[in-house]
């Protein structure tokens, strides 16, 4: 008997009427949804079902009865995409006809999250889609869960970029987001014996229905080789780059819909392909590996997000990635987006490129190369155009995060660009010497080319020199950026520096992630707050309304139930009921101080098992971590292993059952965040003061009714100022105190000697209590804490425990806690990414939004 190739397909009920949706007459819509143009197929259930069945039958090639859940999801995604298409086409035409000035957002990361829910929300199709799927005998929630989010970012930087392009579409600002289409995104995290193991993130394995490949707009990107001087037809000496190898950059377009305004912007991601697929002669000779070597080598460029850079090969691949996507983006805009006869001297009137951190900074010498070498600009003309085309956002205060590329690597991979950087630096240092005559030490400090420990190019300096504006991402961060990271530059150009505090999109992280609270807000203050988040201020009087507080608590309980169900099915984690949910989710890095949170947990556990504290007297708490450590970051990985060891020990100890629990679900991502954040009671934002640029997780938690325990760091400062000190649990040293202690000479072991509770906590860990009696396992972590502790967790430990005691006291009065939580929501409207974008438009880009 022949095997049925579709026998593994999951069957669902198919009503006889479904056939009419494939062959029936065209349906004309009888009404429009509010604020959304009636574009595409009919905007009612019948029209949606008809389009869905077309996609399933003719797109996926299956009947409903023979379709898999993935077939159904892909058909649904294509259906929703179809509704966005007319808006995308019309938006592009309108902007081309108007000659709009474009924001070119250059970012190596876009942590987008799932697209289906966002597209349904933006196009106001949620109810229609649910009813349509019901009519087909399908469950929309099952299809939503089928989507794999594209892990095209590492954390806050990529999520911020996604929020910003969402806001620009909602505000009807002409924007093209440029980035990389990584075949494998940020790795999938699993735990083996409590230790992180990285697995490939195969987000493309089942298809990506949201993207449009456009291979006919491929562009060639060159690498390597050498430069040579020649005399041009006009008799002038010129330089040409003679590369030794190249790749093709293939654009993939993703739609970025505005919120119910018919506007759809573009995210253009680049994928690398070999210029020739394979060597047919070698293939026919049987040397299959060598025949496809060039293709494999080329495609490595966009294979993985942030390849491990602890090896020379990894560092080179990172630079290849960065140049690849910015070179493709600049060429694409000049050749395919601008009119054919456009005068490039007017380029700043048509685009402003925003450099999202240092990753895209190589775009500066690339634009110079294009203008000087390929379009015959004089150097001074090219530099004038370039300086008016770029702006730079710095996202860090950590010296190691400000990229520095060895001259040897740049010269080997991008020889012409290194020559251009040298020329830019030479001209710049002449300007410095003119402004500060006789101050040669200043010139050396400000040089883009460092001499020690290896000769290398400081990309942040290059960006600062070339950019029209340089901004930090929170008030404190921007001040420290000016005063401590780039003080010589801010003295030379004080007007170049500004601040734009980060924000998050309220569409995804409030309206979509927290539907219960969103409905409560709308009932209280009416519609419109989703695009005007400052209107949340109207909630303030409701903080004193006992009935509203009770309903607000009910929403939080429902959100916890939703999280409990998700973690049960996703991870097999059983969260206890009735606990305070104390959450710390962010990239695992020593400066973010997951170690300090861990020490608090161990301290509380030690006090309980020693009998110092009666378990019945403490607030029951569940601590939830979510974090990935970079594959080569040893100390971060050791911290994860210790957190999981502590979680296991506490979970198995009957002495603390029902009072303490620790959960660390693997592979924290945007999808999990959308359920976890609305459920949280307490938000942990405990980085060492002066180290966190801004944070956006802190904003998401506050907007969803969690109270913050945190240091005066990053945007915590602004959150505390807005929500009020009574509704924020402040602890720890301020940045000047940190600087003073560092200058004095920080000795972490002295705090171990001075603090009895810290000593008992560390001693318990050192005893092997959490590692099966194996003391050696925790040796590296303890040695670092006691002898290095670069981010001063030991110094802030006692202050942190005192703040946690205030948390317990406040949470015991649920009415008081609910009032504070409501005020956090009401006073956090400032942290909308829409406001951030208005700041960029006014302070940096000199543009106006249409809405």
UniProtKB/TrEMBL annotation:
Pfam families on file: Phosphorylase
Function of the molecule: Allosteric enzyme that catalyzes the rate-limiting step in glycogen catabolism, the phosphorolytic cleavage of glycogen to produce glucose-1-phosphate, and plays a central role in maintaining cellular and organismal glucose homeostasis.
Top-rank taxon: Bacteria
Enzyme class: transferase
Cofactor dependence: pyridoxal 5'-phosphate
Family of the protein in this entry: Belongs to the glycogen phosphorylase family.
Region of interest called Disordered, as start-end residue ranges on this chain: 1-27
Biased composition (Basic and acidic residues): 1-12
Organism field: Mobilicoccus caccae
EC number of this enzyme: 2.4.1.1
Entry keyword set: Carbohydrate metabolism, Glycosyltransferase, Pyridoxal phosphate, Transferase
Catalytic activity: [(1->4)-alpha-D-glucosyl](n) + phosphate = [(1->4)-alpha-D-glucosyl](n-1) + alpha-D-glucose 1-phosphate
Record protein name field: Alpha-1,4 glucan phosphorylase
Family matches, as PANTHER family: GLYCOGEN PHOSPHORYLASE, GLYCOGEN PHOSPHORYLASE, LIVER FORM
């Amino acid at each position: 008997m022949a095997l049925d190739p579709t026998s593994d397909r999951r069957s669902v009920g198919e009503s006889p009427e479904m056939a009419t949706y494939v062959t029936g007459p065209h349906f004309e819509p009888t009404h429009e949804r509010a604020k959304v143009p009636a574009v595409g197929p009919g905007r009612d259930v019948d029209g949606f079902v008809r389009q869905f069945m077309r996609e399933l039958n003719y797109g996926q090639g299956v009947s409903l009865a023979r379709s898999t859940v993935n077939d159904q999801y892909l058909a649904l995604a294509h259906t929703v995409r179809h509704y966005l298409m007319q808006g995308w086409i019309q938006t592009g035409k309108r902007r081309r006809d108007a000659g709009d000035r474009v924001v070119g957002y250059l970012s190596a990361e876009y942590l987008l999250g799932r697209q289906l829910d966002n597209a349904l929300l933006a196009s106001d199709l949620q109810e229609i889609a649910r009813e349509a799927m019901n009519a087909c005998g399908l469950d929309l929630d099952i299809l939503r869960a089928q989507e794999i989010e594209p892990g095209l970012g590492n954390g806050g930087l990529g999520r911020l970029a996604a929020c910003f392009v969402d806001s620009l579409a909602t505000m009807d600002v002409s924007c093209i987001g440029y980035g990389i289409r990584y075949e494998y995104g940020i790795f999938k995290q699993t735990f083996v014996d409590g230790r992180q193991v990285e697995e490939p993130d195969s987000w493309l394995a089942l298809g990506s229905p949201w993207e449009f490949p456009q291979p006919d707009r491929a562009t060639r990107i060159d690498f390597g080789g050498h430069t040579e001087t020649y005399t041009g037809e006009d008799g002038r000496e010129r330089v040409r780059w003679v590369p030794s190898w190249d790749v093709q950059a293939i654009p993939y377009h993703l739609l970025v819909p505005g919120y119910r305004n018919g506007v759809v912007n573009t995210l253009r991601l680049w994928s690398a392909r070999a210029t020739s697929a394979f060597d047919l002669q070698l293939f026919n000779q049987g040397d299959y590996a060598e025949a496809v070597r060039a293709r494999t080598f080329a495609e490595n460029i966009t294979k993985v997000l942030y390849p491990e850079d602890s090896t020379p090969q990894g560092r080179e691949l990172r630079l290849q990635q960065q140049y690849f996507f910015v070179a493709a983006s600049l060429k694409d805009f000049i050749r395919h987006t601008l009119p054919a006869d456009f005068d490039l001297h007017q380029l700043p009137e048509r685009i402003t490129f925003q450099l999202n951190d240092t990753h895209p900074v190589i775009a500066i010498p690339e634009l110079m190369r294009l203008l000087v070498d390929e379009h015959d600009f004089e150097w001074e003309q090219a530099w004038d155009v370039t300086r008016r085309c770029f702006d730079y956002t710095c996202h860090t205060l950590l010296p190691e995060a400000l990229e520095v590329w060895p001259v040897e690597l740049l010269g080997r991979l991008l020889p012409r660009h290194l020559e251009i950087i040298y020329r830019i630096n030479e001209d710049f240092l002449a300007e410095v010497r003119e402004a500060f005559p006789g101050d040669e030490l200043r010139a050396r400090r400000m040089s883009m080319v460092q001499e020690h420990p290896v000769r290398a190019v400081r990309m942040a300096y290059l960006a600062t020199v070339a950019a029209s504006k340089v901004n930090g991402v929170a008030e404190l961060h921007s001040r420290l950026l000016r005063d401590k990271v780039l003080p010589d530059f801010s003295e030379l150009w004080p007007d170049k520096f500004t601040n734009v505090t980060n924000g998050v999109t309220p569409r995804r992280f409030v309206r979509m992630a927290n539907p219960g609270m969103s409905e409560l807000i709308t009932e209280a203050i009416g519609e419109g707050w989703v695009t005007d988040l400052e209107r949340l201020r109207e909630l303030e009087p409701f903080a004193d309304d006992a009935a509203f507080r009770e309903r607000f608590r009910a929403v939080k309980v429902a959100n916890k139930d939703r999280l409990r169900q998700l973690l049960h099915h996703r991870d097999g984690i059983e969260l206890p009921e009735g606990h305070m949910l104390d959450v710390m989710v962010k990239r695992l890095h020593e400066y973010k101080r997951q170690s300090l949170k861990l020490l608090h947990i161990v301290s509380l556990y030690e006090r309980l098992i020693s009998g110092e504290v009666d378990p019945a007297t403490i607030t029951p708490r569940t601590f939830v971590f979510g974090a990935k450590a970079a594959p080569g970051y040893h100390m971060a990985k050791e911290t994860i292993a210790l957190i999981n060891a502590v979680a296991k020990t506490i979970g198995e100890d009957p002495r603390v059952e029902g009072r303490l629990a620790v959960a660390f679900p693997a592979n924290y991502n945007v999808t999990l965040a959308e359920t976890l954040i609305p459920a949280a009671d307490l938000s942990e934002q405990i980085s060492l003061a002066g180290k966190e640029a801004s944070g956006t997780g802190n904003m998401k938690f506050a907007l969803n009714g969690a109270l913050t325990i945190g240091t005066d760091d990053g945007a915590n400062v602004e959150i505390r100022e807005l929500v009020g000190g009574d509704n924020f649990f402040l602890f720890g040293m301020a940045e000047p105190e940190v600087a003073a202690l560092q200058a004095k000479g920080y000795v972490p072991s002295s705090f171990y000697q001075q603090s009895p509770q810290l000593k008992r906590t560390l001693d318990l860990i050192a005893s092997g209590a959490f590692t099966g009696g194996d003391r050696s396992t925790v040796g590296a972590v303890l040695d670092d804490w006691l002898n290095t502790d670069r981010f001063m967790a030991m110094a802030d430990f006692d202050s942190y425990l005192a703040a946690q005691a205030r948390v317990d006291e406040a949470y015991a009065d649920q009415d008081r806690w609910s009032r504070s939580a409501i005020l956090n929501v009401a006073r956090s409207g400032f942290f909308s990414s829409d406001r951030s974008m208005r700041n960029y438009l006014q302070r940096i880009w000199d543009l106006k939004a249409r809405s």
